[in-house]
Amino acid sequence: MRFPGRLLGLLLACLLWGIAAPAWAQEVDLGVITVKQKSLADTIRQRLLKGDSFESLAKNYSVGPAAGRGGRLGRVPETRIRSEFKRALVGLTPGQPSGVVATEEGFNILMRFDAAPSLAAPAPAPAPAPRPQAATSPTPLAPAPTRPPAAVDSPQLAARLEVMAAVEKLSAGQLKPAEADLSKALGHNPSEDSALFLLELVRAGLGGQLQTKALTSFGQAFLAMLDGRADAALVGFRQARQADDRFWQATLFEANVLAGSGQAQKAVTLLTELIKQHPQAARAHLSLGMIKLDLRQMEEGVGHLRQALALEPGLAEAHYRLGSVALSQGNLEQAEQEFRAAVAADPYKEEAINDLGLVYAATGRSQEAEKAYLKSMELNPGYPAAHVNLGTLYAQTGRMNQAIDEFNKALILDDSLGDAHVNLSVAYTLRGEWEAAIKHADLAAQLGAEVPQVLLDKLAPHRK
């Protein structure tokens, strides 16, 4: 689940050294807020000292490329941190803001979020090393002795496990431990949107802006939602809002559960009223836009998605949904633009990478398409659509054995994929393996998939 520069994005060019860090380098779970005015930087630092949320301040004021994810850079190897930032971090404890550091980008406040020992004072900077060419994937981080390899190989999984641990604590009313778990999640994956969203709620609870009782009900409802217990989730989210009428996010989740359980119109009513009360709630516009698209109300859906992005440009899901609309309409240029924006906002979003592959394939870039499908599988090995798409690409480029292998892998993951059966039937037909071709055509029909008439005609003489 890794893209080049997954932790630092554009900051590699302007804040950090461009040399590869050795795998054993100490890492710092780092955040940075960058503003253009010294007076604003001083004000932000004072607010941080009083306990204001670093992530919220970064989202509201920072002009740095990590602002959309709350200023979080993730785990940065010490050897990649520029010397003036190292000096500012010396002696800082986790959660303590640095002094204001002036650079060519502006005025910066740093914060570390891990519990590692303080950095040693940096040695004099060596002569710059030649910049290596960007690798196709970053060097994996070296595992800590007690950390299971899966956690190292999959920062996305590690982040989501921390989020789940945080929700468990939240459901028990343990706000401080939940806050720690969510901060760890962002250290693993700064693009983990659920961690940033929940961290803002937990910080609001710790600061007295939300009642702990309401957050506890929310956590319990969140777990019920993940377990597929829609009725219990609806009750819990309603209880959270009743416990604290400021907790509009609980209504947002209630609407999403309603939509997911087939009650789209009720969800639309809730979200429409919620937007009237909170017109700046980007995620309410996002949810309403997604539901409108599902209801085939395309113009309204696209409008709400664009409004969500106007309020919060880093919403990967909004970019992804707009890309899907453009793809369905045959606007490949716009689809590519939106999918790329989705991946820039969340480098771990396998759906956007998979659909970028569709755009590449449709525009004759088969090698890029293959890389995209393989990357989406790397991000999510249980993603059958990527196997179907890769198999289709292999079939179109004459690699029929590999195509059949990919279609079968997709069916292992989900044996209800009618399209995979259709594709297998076509592949076996091209190879003259009639029995297998007929079997998969029949399975596709049983699943309700459309089997092309030309294929049925081709198979008819070979039926016993």
Number of strands: 4
Structural class: mainly alpha
The protein's oligomeric status is: single chain
Give the strand content.
5-15%
Mean pLDDT: 82
Annotated CATH architecture of the domain at 11-121 = Roll
Shape: globular
Q: Which strand order spans the largest sheet, edge to edge or round the barrel? A: 2-1-4-3
Radius of gyration: 25 Å
Name of the CATH first level of the domain at 11-121: Alpha Beta
CATH topology of the domain at 11-121: Chitinase A, domain 3
Low-confidence stretches: 1-25, 116-152
Largest sheet, if any?
4 strands, antiparallel
The arrangement of helices and strands along the chain is HEHHEHEEHHHHHHHHHHHHHHHHHHH
N-C termini distance: 48 Å
Structure annotation, total helices: 23
Helix content: 55-70%
Task: Describe the protein.
Among the domains are: 11-121, Chitinase A, domain 3 (Roll), CATH 3.10.50; 382-464, Serine Threonine Protein Phosphatase 5, Tetratricopeptide repeat. Helix 12 (264-277) packs antiparallel against helix 13 (282-294) and helix 20 (400-413) packs antiparallel against helix 21 (418-430). The protein has a 4-stranded antiparallel beta sheet with strand order 2-1-4-3, with helices on both faces. Helix content is 60%, strand content 5%. The chain has 23 helices and 4 strands. The model is unreliable at 1-25 and 116-152 (pLDDT under 50). It is mainly α.
